[in-house]
From TrEMBL:
Pathway: Cell wall biogenesis; peptidoglycan biosynthesis. The keyword Thylakoid does not apply. It is found in: Cytoplasm. This is UDP-N-acetylenolpyruvoylglucosamine reductase. InterPro entries: FAD-bd_PCMH, FAD-bd_PCMH-like_sf, FAD-bd_PCMH_sub1, FAD-bd_PCMH_sub2, MurB, MurB_C, MurB_C_sf, Oxid_FAD_bind_N. The active site is at 165, 213 (proton donor), 283. GO terms for molecular function: FAD binding; UDP-N-acetylmuramate dehydrogenase activity.
Amino acid sequence: MDKIEHLKNFSLKDFCTIKIGGVGKVVFFPKNVEEISFLIREYGKENIFPLGIGSNLIFSDGFIDKVFIHSKNLKKCEITQENDIFYLTLEAGVSFKTINNIVKKYNLEGFENLSGIPATVGGAVAMNAGAYGSEIFDILEEVWWIDKDGNLIHSKKQDIKHYYRYSQFQEEGFVYKVKIKLKKSNKDISSIIKQHLLDRNKKQPLDLPTAGSTYKNPPQTYAGKLIEQVGLKGYRINDIGFSSKHANFLVNYKDARFKDLINLLELAEKKVYEKFGIQLEREVKIVE
């Protein structure tokens, strides 16, 4: 166990994009599937929490008694080609920026709508990340994952439970590696990706620490629109607030506190329910 790279009593602020949180018990940085399996068997799956970029995570203040497994050393990437079809086999720590570079190099289509999401492969598959009407499961073929007993399982997409912003890996298993399918395009993929990134910069508050979309969009409407219509766009409690640029984004103005963030979420949920009868469902994951 001590041979696996790790940190004890570490700052959780450094492991999430919104920069909120207290102290974590220990975080390991395994470099292969054997080390992941060992950690799961050693500590028990119920005590383990996987980490990537942390773009949709919010940690509570104080001490969090969990064993975290971070994917920063799991970055192997294999590319195979069959005529105009490309298969990318990616370990959990491969970033979407890396995939962007690959799809631009070979001019591949299928990933461009996801291109601006701040994510690693493991977290994206676990939450079925999506944007512009696309989601990662649209291009996913296979997943290699580790179950609660430390066994490596290989599953085809059709055998994995998933729907909007959800996959079974939120409850079970550690995503170790995935295979995605893309194809050669006649379109200028680099230009499309560039435009998506420009749109994101224009519409989203990327100049401040944020956790991405706070709520899932309810059927036939948008969470940001509902939050705006109850008067909370730009509203803040101390250093946490809903962005004045996009109401479905929480932003940390300087030194936001977890208790203020929870109070703000509860206020938004109460106001939206009272006015529209809609129960907002959180997309961000609260870890306490």
